[in-house]
Amino acid sequence: MGAPKQSEETRFHYGGQAVIEGVMMRGLRSMAVAVREPEGGIRVKLEMLTGLYTGPIRRIPLLRGVIVLWETLALGMRALAFSSQVAAGMSDEEEDESSPAYIWGVMAFAFAFAAALFFVTPLLLTAWLNSRIDNGTIVVAIEGLLRLGMLLGYIWGIGLIPDIKRVFAYHGAEHRTINAWEADEPLEVESVRRFGNEHARCGTAFLLTVALVSLFVFLLLPTPGWWWRVASRVLLMPVIAAASYEIIRLSAEFRRFRVVRWLSQPSLTLQSLTTRDPDDTQIEVAIRALETVLAADTSAPIDGAAGTP
């Protein structure tokens, strides 16, 4: 089934995430999660969004990057909780809505884990170089390259897990569906299947951009003391994320220029690690999720909000 198109002036940057046996799509004012049930059907959950998720504050440059990062974690956790329950065979009556305290706890743990693994650990691993290399810039550069290598290794490693491979296939289905929508093609399996797994606003591209931006930011900072270096790695994470988000937006907006496509190619290539070719049943799930938020958006006035990755 096809879907109504928005006018070019109010076109929203639809995007989403892969979850367990399903796909979450983010619309103008809603989030939809479509999950394949063990019996073969597709269960869909639509959640209308208000407040910070749809307010004018999320259109302010740089600040919107921090908001989108928060949104990705918060909505992603709720979508993941729902998908895990559906995939486990729980009925609508058995579904257990995760408490806000639980969501906050998991998000705090995820943030702390990411900060410790990808920002503090490379600093610790290169600390011994300070007494051997009398050049702080070189040490920080090695730290940044180590951070990038750890990120790539982590993504490659989790991609070897069979269950994660299925999630990555739904990731590919999500990208293909968004690509078809943005190309004004009908949201049908045959049409969606013709598109590739890569997308310029992918979260994988965002992670790579964060790693590269952090390298340049930390190179510009002074390195007077150990605790200052540790604090800077943690406290500047939101700033680096905000700048990285703006870079991703600009690269997607100006992708028609050859130099932008050339600069974006590494992030698109990296997506081969986080996507797999989906089958028709997985594409059907992604289409259902996108059609659900499109239907919710067309039932209310559209005011041209800023897009999400």
Straight-line N-to-C gap: 25 Å
Strand order of the largest sheet: 1-2-3-4
Mean pLDDT rating:
83
Largest sheet: 4 strands, antiparallel
What shape does the CA trace take?
Answer: globular
Helix content: 55-70%
Secondary-structure element string: EEEEHHHHHHHHHH
Give the helix/strand class: alpha+beta
Low-confidence runs of at least 5 consecutive residues: 1-10, 301-309
What fraction strand? 5-15%
What does the radius of gyration come to? 20 Å
Number of domains: 1
**Helix count?**
10
How many beta strands in the DSSP annotation? 4
Task: Report on the architecture of this protein.
Helix 1 packs across helix 2, helix 2 (100-125) crosses helix 3 and helix 3 (136-158) packs antiparallel against helix 6. Strands 1-2-3-4 form a 4-stranded antiparallel beta sheet. By secondary structure, the protein is an alpha+beta fold. Strand 2 (22-26) and strand 3 form a beta hairpin. Residues 1-10 and 301-309 have low confidence and may be disordered. It has helices at residues 63-87, 100-125, 136-158, 162-182, 189-193, 203-220, 226-235, 237-253, 258-270, 280-298; strands at 15-19, 22-26, 30-36, 42-48.
